[in-house]
């Protein structure tokens, strides 16, 4: 049995013409090129969603079991899941890094807020006293 091919959204979007048409339905990719001009609802219906996810329009129509079976015959692979990398909450600036390294604070600020590395030491010292 051959391995299932995985497609990105970008790859699928390149297949949006009547002569080269992919659809995604429920995460599965179908090459519907040979079916476009045979679609009972007209080829315009398929062309509107060509090269993209057609799950919602497909489900809204309520296709028959025969239509589902026919669709499965055009299956060519799966939609590749997109891994999203979260953006960092804050990106340190050069100035903020320099302030930490150089400890640019007034003496009273340094007394109230020791550097992070020393905070546990001072907390332990206060608890012991």
Describe the protein.
With 129 residues, this protein is α+β, with helices and mostly antiparallel strands. It has two domains: 75 residues, Flavocytochrome B2, Chain A, domain 1; 35 residues, no CATH class. Helix content is 39%, strand content 16%. The protein has seven helices and five strands; from the N terminus they run βαβββαααβααα. A five-stranded mixed beta sheet has the order 1-5-4-3-2. It starts with a strand and ends with a helix. The model has no long low-confidence stretch (mean pLDDT 80).
Secondary structure layout plus pairing:
Elements: E1 5-7, H1 9-13, E2 16-17, E3 20-25, E4 28-31, H2 43-47, H3 55-61, H4 65-72, E5 75-79, H5 94-102, H6 107-112, H7 119-128
Parallel strand pairs: 1-5
Antiparallel strand pairs: 2-3, 3-4, 4-5
Short description:
Belongs to the cytochrome b5 family. The chain has 129 residues and is α+β, with helices and mostly antiparallel strands. It has seven helices and five strands; from the N terminus they run βαβββαααβααα.
- End-to-end span in angstroms? 72 Å
Q: Number of DSSP strands?
A: 5
What is the mean pLDDT? 80
Helix content: 25-40%
Strand content: 15-25%
Structural class: alpha+beta
Principal-axis shape: rod-shaped
Reported CATH architecture of the largest domain: Roll
CA radius of gyration: 29 Å
Strand order of the largest sheet: 1-5-4-3-2
**What profile does the largest beta sheet have?**
5 strands, mixed
SSE topology string? EHEEEHHHEHHH
State the CATH topology of the largest domain.
Flavocytochrome B2, Chain A, domain 1
CATH superfamily of the largest domain: Cytochrome b5-like heme/steroid binding domain
CATH first level of the largest domain: which class? Alpha Beta
Number of domains: 2
Extract low-pLDDT stretches.
none
